[in-house]
Amino acid sequence: MNIVTLRDVAKSFGHVKALDSVSLEVRQGELIALLGPSGCGKTTLLRSVAGLERPDSGLITIRDRDMSMVSPRERPIGMVFQSYALFPNMTVRQNIAFPLEVRRVPRSSVGPRVDEMLHLVRLVEQADRYPHQISGGQAQRCALGRALAPSPDVLLLDEPLSALDALVRVRLRDEIRRVQQLVHTTALYVTHDQSEAMAIADRIAVMNHGRIEQLATPADLYEEPRTEFAATFVGARNVLELPVAGGRVRFGAAFDVSAPVGSNGHALAFFRPEDVVVAHDRVAGQHAMVELKVFLGSSTRLHLRSDLDDVVYRYQADIPSRLAQGIAQGEAVIVAIDPRTVRVFPATDPMTV
Question: Shortest CA distance to 308 belongs to which of 233, 255, 272?
Answer without folding.
Answer: 255
